[in-house]
Design goal:
About 0% of the residues have low confidence. A hairpin with a 3-residue loop joins strand 11 and strand 12. About 30% of the residues lie in helices and about 25% in strands. It contains 11 helices and 21 strands. It is globular. Helix 1 runs parallel beside helix 5 and helix 1 packs parallel to helix 7. The chain is of the alpha+beta class and about 475 residues long.
Length: about 475
């Protein structure tokens, strides 16, 4: 790369899934790249539930967002296969409960057909009940798509980051960008720890736009997503991803997971309480016993267009703004577009030694006995079960810490290995995992955090014994 002696060719602001994917795409080229993330770990935006729908664009009102979904969906099988990421095809059924929503369904179908989206068909109520006998609502009609799938979004984001790391991207965690100043041939990026210079900036942080003097106002969504992660033992089984719409703007989703259980998702205006959300979900699935609810989570629901703004590319600045429920689906397409925009404006070439695969990892739970015996012979820590609920071994936990961009928090280990996601929610294994993390990082147990600096697991020790 020819040019001035700046610290980096490209600085990426934000270590969410889009930032990590952009880092991966750009790491294919002869560029000096760094990514700055204010949190302890990357991809915190992709992990409230480790299951995401890969859409085909049929359900999307915005034409540009639909195109990004369709493009990202077409790229996803190759990416997940290459990175060894859980990915499973599922049909997607959008169900109308009344005549008003049936008209919405017809409009969605006609628009999708006009967009050229294949493998769609309309279903009668009789066809819906035949395909999904456990559905517990009045059905007028439905759209069925064969194009959709389920993916583990956190695994995908981590894989993007790990491969980018192995190809030379410098990840700077726990650094918050405070300001960006335009200099003669690039930018000076000021963080709470350092000052960096670079030729180009990619800003993927949704809440701030450093290209103008003041930070943009962060919009607060008026809708919320309320998740019920259901136990595998629940008697109801669904063969498709199901979305139920009615004359209001509420939506109910039933989403099969890679792990074999289901997620019930209620999207409602405002922030309904647990009981209200459960009643709405039960109205679709039938009564759900609280004994079958593994966990309940709530987060904002966004349907803002994602904008790739390259209007300042001649000055070396590109930003990705907006929040959209289909961001996971769009990510491969967004990263590809950003990469092409950057490389077309810089003198760079493809690397000859690019490593386009993720380092191997092992999931003891998914192995047969022969494979388990082999890995235990290689590393005896794989014979020590730490999380009994999900059959996660010490070997997997140590690997998650020692890998590129290894876990430095309890939550980081949970998301990488599935430990603490079983029926006990970590009651039996969290302290064991904290001890392993303390040992591997050389930190005191009192300094181990759940997910941020204000979430210490052990506040203080009563006495300074050698062990706890």
């Amino acid at each position: 790369m020819e040019g001035y002696l700046l610290d980096y060719d490209v600085l990426i602001l934000g270590g969410g899934i889009v930032g990590c994917a952009a880092a991966y795409e750009l790491s294919k080229y002869s560029l000096n790249i760094a990514l700055i993330e204010k949190d302890y770990d990357i991809a915190d935006d992709a992990a409230i539930i480790n299951t995401a729908i890969i859409y085909d664009g049929a359900e999307c009102e915005d034409t540009l967002m639909a195109k990004l979904e369709a493009l990202g969906s077409s790229m996803m099988p190759e990416i997940t296969s290459k990175f060894n990421i859980p990915y499973k095809k599922f049909g997607y059924m959008i169900i109308a409960q009344d005549e008003a929503s049936a008209r919405k369904i017809n409009n969605i179908y006609n628009t999708a057909i006009a967009r050229g989206i294949p493998n769609l068909r309309m279903l009668t109520s009789e066809e819906v009940y035949k395909m999904e006998p456990d559905i517990n609502i009045k059905v007028v009609n439905a759209i069925y798509s064969k194009n959709t799938a389920i993916v583990s979004p956190y695994d995908l984001a981590i894989a993007y980051g790990e491969v980018a790391f192995d190809n030379g991207v410098n990840f700077k965690l726990e650094e918050e960008v405070l300001d960006i100043k335009k200099i003669n041939k690039g930018y000076r990026v000021i963080t709470n720890k350092n000052k960096f210079t670079c030729h180009m900036v990619i800003n993927t942080t949704p809440s701030k736009d450093f290209s103008i003097e003041a930070a943009e106002r962060q919009e607060i969504s008026k809708f919320s997503r309320n998740y019920f992660l259901l136990d595998e033992k629940i008697p109801l089984k669904f063969n498709s991803v199901i979305s139920v719409i009615n004359e209001t703007e509420d939506k109910t989703y039933i989403i099969p997971t890679i792990q074999g259980n289901s997620v019930a998702l209620q999207i409602s205006e405002g922030v309904p309480d647990y009981k209200t959300s459960l009643e709405k979900v039960s109205g679709v699935m039938g009564s759900i016993s609280e004994n079958n609810i593994h966990s309940y989570l709530s987060s904002p629901f966004y349907n803002e267009p994602i904008i790739i703004d390259d209007s300042s590319i001649h000055q070396g600045y590109i930003k990705v703004t907006g929040k959209h429920y289909g961001e996971i689906t769009m990510t491969p397409a967004i990263a590809k577009i950003v990469c092409e925009t950057i490389t077309s404006n810089m003198n760079c070439v493809l690397k000859k030694n690019f490593i386009d695969k993720r380092r191997e990892f092992y999931r003891f739970k998914n192995m047969n006995n022969r494979e388990r015996n082999e890995i235990i012979k290689y590393n005896k820590n794989y014979g020590k079960i730490v999380c009994s609920c999900n059959c996660v071994t010490e070997g997997e936990i140590v690997d998650s810490i020692r890998r590129p961009l290894g876990a430095r928090t309890i939550e980081g280990i949970k998301r990488r290995t599935g430990a603490m996601e079983g029926s006990c929610n970590g009651a039996q294994c969290m302290l064991k995992i904290a001890r392993i993390l303390s040992r591997e990082t050389g930190k005191r147990l009192c300094d181990i955090v759940k997910d941020s600096k204000n979430s210490k697991l052990v506040v203080a020790r009563i006495k300074e014994f050698d062990g706890m």
